[in-house]
Design brief:
mainly alpha; Dna Ligase, domain 1; 3 domains; two-stranded antiparallel sheet; two-stranded antiparallel ribbon; 6 strands
Amino acid sequence: MLSVRHFCAPNMFTKKRIIIGAAVITLLLLPFIAYYMSPAGSAAESANFYIEKGEGLREIAVKLERAGLIRSRPVFVFYSLFSGSASKFKSGYYSLRADTSVPSLMRLLVAGPAADIKITVREGDTLAQIEKKLVDAGVIKAGALSKFHGKSLEGFLFPDTYRFFKNSSADDVVKKFMTNFHQRAMPALSGANIRLADGKQLSVYELLTVASIIEKEVPFQEDRRLVAGLLYKRLSIGMGLQVDAAPDTYKYSGLPSRPIANPGLDAIRAATEPKASSYLYYLSDPKTRKTIFSKTFEEHKENKFKYLK
């Protein structure tokens, strides 16, 4: 007859083996777990991250992995479920750093996003005006955009509504502007083929400069393509542009050395899709802001007397 001691011994032995085996597996996996839970990048790397309302755990994990904020999507999903955080992530805009560990990242997503700041850039706003808006809102410090690595951003700050965080880096702010510019403006600019009478093809930067002039000079859509064609005609014959929005064009021939403001899509399309005409002169009616065209200088002088006296 078997005693209780004899009956229990095999089960106890089996349990010990299971516990030891689990401990060994855990010890072997610890380096891998620690690696995938560690920060995915350095402090210099950061990303603006957005969780939409109703977005699921796996969708969030995919976006985090693509943004370079986590090392492993499956590990993030597993740890989220294991820690009970999976259903607690809050929607909204985040400014996340790549040197954040998975547990710390989860705490940020559970706590919710910091209050973001909405900044609207309007068609024709200049770099100085846009920088002032950002500085006044506490997004960046003075000079962050105007002195950005010695490069002029005039023309590339595409008019739109943006969301930023307080005390953002200039790199993060410019990245958001440039991403929008390449998505919205570049398709029209890069696809254009505008040539002057001598066969010279205008570059993307030159087209952007023309668009900025049109944005500041011509308020109405129906006039803009005509003005674009007129300006290209002046450039082709070596005539000064003589536009009020860019005073240097009264002193020097050719285009200004850089855009004079930040044009919207309508002005960009006018610059890339000019309309040919017999006009060579124009002015703006101060009362209606309509563009008044003329074919000859004599006709232009009459219009100046009529509208600008």
